[in-house]
Amino acid sequence: MNALVPVDLTELESILIGPDGLIRAASYEVLKKFPQNDISYFCWKHAIYQIPTTELIEWLRNRINGRRAVEIGSGNGSVGTALGVPITDTRMQERDDIKARYEMLNQPVIKYHPNTVLLDGNSAVREMKPQVVVACWVTQLWHPGVEDGNMWGVNETDICLAVEEYIHVGNAGTHARKEVLKMFNFEQHQFEWLLSRSMDKDANCIYVYRNPKINIRNNPTP
Asked: Whole-model pTM?
């Protein structure tokens, strides 16, 4: 994050952080006056990637449409909490070894929501059996042949095959090499109210993988 310019975040924090110290949803109409540098710097400081705009929450709520849903890799839990669905995460950044590594990299660690259920993404789907899975900036599980990912990531292929819809909020640049993009048909949505840690705001998007058992491609393209 060396490209970021440190700024006074007092006003932005007063909008996005509640009295309990947890990140809360706020309207894009209020947030759009802040430069992207400020938004990205806020995300870096508070170890988040997705800003929970009320417009995002409303869009997700309409998309879920009353179905059984869960948020995986929820981190601070602001999105799932605003949606009123269970929030799950490994809470890995509470581990001493991970915190030490992040400190060496000058990276803040996540402040997890106290209601977070301690489950990795795939276990959450197996145990909670949701119809819809929501994830923001989730990293895919690495295996030979995967360009991006890590050993603690999520097997998104298994999730796509287990639910009606997998909704991933991310960035078309950052997540362009995800394996599921090559394997499944998907919808890609872009809205001005998508605010994230990425300095490339125009690439922020929502991927929706719907009914993948039916829509899976016979010949995935590279």
From this structure: 0.92
